[in-house]
Specification:
Layout (H helix, E strand, L loop, with lengths): L1 E5 L2 E3 L4 E8 L8 E6 L6 E6 L6 E3 L7 E6 L4 E6 L8 E7 L3 E2 L2 E2 L5 E2 L3 E6 L1
Parallel strand pairs: 2-13
Antiparallel strand pairs: 1-3, 3-8, 4-5, 4-9, 5-6, 7-8, 9-12, 9-13, 10-11
């Protein structure tokens, strides 16, 4: 099982989109989430989407700026990041098979991607 995610450099105020896909998983049956870990800090939750896409969750620092979505036909989950800030700089991880219900995003997951570095310049 391997989760892959891609990111790149961004500028403050700009936008980036992260993508995540999985092999050997029934991706469409799993909740998928994004976490991030900034240098010197602990990993934190960012956002998640339920298996049917009907429920999404966002941590306060990203609400109104980030949007999570999924395309199960392509086995992909996306994190659209707008109005980027330097404090969004972190390694972002996608994770599958976690709790993602109304108002709640779990911390644990059975499947993790390798992480992708997002750097936002000021």
């Amino acid at each position: 099982v391997q989760l892959q995610a891609w990111g790149r450099l961004g500028a403050a105020g700009g936008s980036l989109r992260l993508s995540c896909t999985a092999s050997d998983l029934d991706f469409d049956r799993l909740a998928v989430g994004w976490f991030r870990q900034a240098p010197g800090k602990e990993r934190e939750k960012v956002s998640c989407v339920s298996p049917n896409g009907g429920n999404t969750y966002y941590e306060d620092p990203v609400k109104g700026r980030f949007t999570i979505s999924r395309d199960d036909a392509k086995n992909m989950v996306y994190l659209q990041m707008n109005s980027l800030r330097p404090e969004d700089t972190a390694v972002y991880y996608c994770a599958a098979d976690l709790v993602c219900v109304l108002g709640v995003m779990g911390q644990g997951s059975d499947y993790w991607g390798q992480g992708t570095l997002v750097t936002v310049s000021s």
